[in-house]
Amino acid sequence: MKRVCVYAGSNLGAHPDYVHHAKELGRALVNNGLELVYGGSRVGLMGELANQVLELGGSVTGVMPTGLFRGEVVHTGLTQLIEVKDMHERKSTMSRLADAYIALPGGFGTFEELFEMICWAQIGIHQKPIGIFNIAGYYTPLLQMIDHSIAAGFVKEEHKQLVLSASDSESLIQLLQSYVTPVFGNKWNQLS
Q1: CB-neighbour burial class of residue 9 (10 A; exposed 0-12, middle 13-18, buried 19+)
Q2: Averaged pLDDT, 139-143
Q3: Strands 130-133 and 35-38
Q4: What pairing do the DSSP bridges indicate for beta strands 60-65 and 100-103?
Q5: Which candidate, 87, 85, 13, places its Cα nearest to that of 49?
Q6: Are 120 and 92 in contact (CB under 8 A)?
Q7: What does the pLDDT average to over 2-10?
Q8: Any idea which fold 3-191 has?
Q9: Domain residue ranges of the chain, discontinuous segments joined by +
Q10: Environment class of residue 102 by beta-carbon count within 10 Å: exposed (0-12), middle (13-18) or buried (19+)?
Q11: Confidence (pTM)
């Protein structure tokens, strides 16, 4: 594992632990010799994470669509900034560059990116580990929703293995590094 793609909020969030742990994740990435790939913004948790990695001498690649340069405020001090034409190309580029994924707290965009990677893993498009950084219980309702979807018969129990979760950065990175891609049977209950 060389590069980790981190999805994160473009806002700081209401709880001070979000910023603290975003910076902690940056330290953990550098301490483990891992490069950061992210959305390229200088604001929100995205910016806090990137700044921490850069301050500690780590490598940061940002990927941003041209149309978001004004809205999200592109980070101009990155190791590398890749300009793409739209959000689809952004997500595809970030995924191609990454060996693993982590979701920090964030909003709709973070949820969408996280679930796309989970879905892609479920249907075999990639075999990379996916981690949820559950800071201050932020993702607990989402993890409960996954359990609910299993109980309701829409997700197979075995597919829960695709989602790793921890409440501290070092534990999460260890989970990603020791991840072994599970082998699943058929995803569709009616075709089993």
Answers
A1: buried
A2: 98
A3: unpaired
A4: unpaired
A5: 13
A6: no
A7: 97
A8: Rossmann fold (3.40.50)
A9: 3-191
A10: buried
A11: 0.94
